[in-house]
Amino acid sequence: MESNKNMGRLLDILGNETRRRILILLTKRPYFVSELSQELGVGQKAVLEHLRILESAGLIEGRTERIPRGRPRKYYTIKRGFRLEVMLTPYIFGTEMYEPKRPRSTEEYLQARELIKSTGPVEEKMRDLLEFLSEVQARIDELMRTRQELEEVRLLTETYIENLMRRIAGENEPEFERLLREFAPLLPKRVLNDLDDF
């Protein structure tokens, strides 16, 4: 349940347009508060509050830069990258977050490193890199299609299991309790949480 609360908090944070605009700006380069205020047309006090919220969520970080003359200035950068997915189907509403990890030494990773380190003519290097990138994107697209299809099957199956357990609970509570004890370790976390609240 804690992860659901955290995800809800993150969605609330990203639901604010000014905070989204701040994040978009920070993907381009680090910014000082005064620069963000000017770019956004928002007062510095309000910008500082948005930055505090984003920093407390672990999305950005502030670093102090010492200046030869004058007070040190604090600038902000993106702290971590992640991908947030919202799944809405006739069966369920849910969210998942994926944070990139250091790539394993896969064949593709090694190929990318080899292309990046190549010392051939720049036109040839660019052509090879773009061709490789296109192949990687095509594979990602195919995997995403497959994942989406499998998600639909998973959600359909989970929903059926949950509805079945709820029906049993309504007809025979001792049987429901027995099945819940027996299958609790195998039940998906979402289904288990929903049944616990039942």
Broad shape: flat
Average predicted confidence as pLDDT: 85
Poorly predicted tracts of residues: none
N-to-C span: 14 Å
Tally the helices: 8
Domain count: 2
**Element-level helix/strand string:** HHEHHEEEEHHHH
What is Rg?
Answer: 24 Å
Side by side, the strands of the main sheet go: 1-3-2
Name the helicity range: 55-70%
Strand content: 5-15%
Explain what you see.
The protein has 198 residues and is α+β, with helices and mostly antiparallel strands. It folds into two domains: 77 residues, Orthogonal Bundle (Arc Repressor Mutant, subunit A), CATH 1.10.10; 94 residues, no CATH class. The protein contains eight helices and five strands; from the N terminus they run ααβααββββαααα. It is flat and about 75 Å long.
List keywords for this structure.
2 domains; three-stranded antiparallel β-sheet; Arc Repressor Mutant, subunit A; two-stranded antiparallel ribbon; alpha+beta; 8 helices; 198 residues; single chain
Summarize the helices and strands and which ones pair or pack:
Elements: H1 2-14, H2 17-26, E1 31-32, H3 33-40, H4 44-56, E2 60-65, E3 73-78, E4 83-88, E5 93-98, H5 107-117, H6 122-171, H7 173-183, H8 189-196
Antiparallel strand pairs: 1-3, 2-3, 4-5
Helix pairs in contact: 5-6, 6-7, 6-8
